[in-house]
Write a structure and sequence with these properties.
DNA integration, DNA_brk_join_enz, mainly alpha, 3% strand, Integrase_catalytic, 3 strands, Tyrosine_recombinase_XerCD, Tyrosine-type recombinase/integrase
Amino acid sequence: MTAIRDSLARYVAVRRALGASFYEPALALGHFVDLLEHEDAEFITADLALRWAMTSTLVERATWGRRLSQVRGFARWMNVIDGRNQIPPAGLLSARRRRNAPHIYTEQEIDLLMTRAAQLQSRTGMRALTYSTLIGLLVATGLRPGEAFRLDRSDVDLVSGILSIRESKLGKSRCVPVAESTRVALEHYVQKRDQLCPLRLSEAFLVSERGKRLNAGTARSMFVRMSRAVGLRSATEDGRDGYGPRLQDFRHSFATGRLVEWYRAGRDVSRELPKLAAYLGHVNVGLTYWYIEAVPELLELAAAYLDKNCPGEQP
């Protein structure tokens, strides 16, 4: 282990001791250290930090800013140890982000993706099994993709049909009950997984072909290829995958689906929203209200509901 990688291990340990889960930043900084080692760099430089942050071209500028911000925190730590480590100046890349309008999957699109996932080839058959289950789980529960990747076997209660989401966004934990059909599908996955991958190499619930925890970056890349195969994502002029629906959009589709159902049923959505916010793990109801603003159909349904039930509040 190089000195800088050893320092990263101590930095991650300190951040976690202070209460941060620090899962994705730790992975990202590990890749940054890979670059430093490849370049035989003994110290962090602003140029290397900027080059690494901007490695991925088909992402928003805010993603570059977030990656550079992760390096900046580590660089401050390293600069205290040795002043030759440069701290990337603030403002090089903005980490501020505008929320894109969500892609709301149709039932046909979900069917196409599920069919494509079931056709994925691999030596043991685990790839098709795991990706079909991943998509089905996201569709049925609205979990964040990262929450699904971090599920351990002990987090999935197949008797009660409850998922334990531990220390998710902002350190919040919650229990997510699932429908009986989802519980049965997860039970089927467990049976097939343990047949195809009998040696337990990880405590993860969703595993890769090699029996290890499904890697977030690998899963997102695989989803891009599946999306392109079924026509949901087009290629750019240089042959790369263009922008298109993401795994995160299954969460958006789940939330908007519940809201549409409630409006069409004439239910008081303002009373139901806190329940949905708690189920999704939102830190406040305002985050859940964003879906109404972001989806035109929901805005129309909300306006129609107000016209019918609150006529005195019309402008």
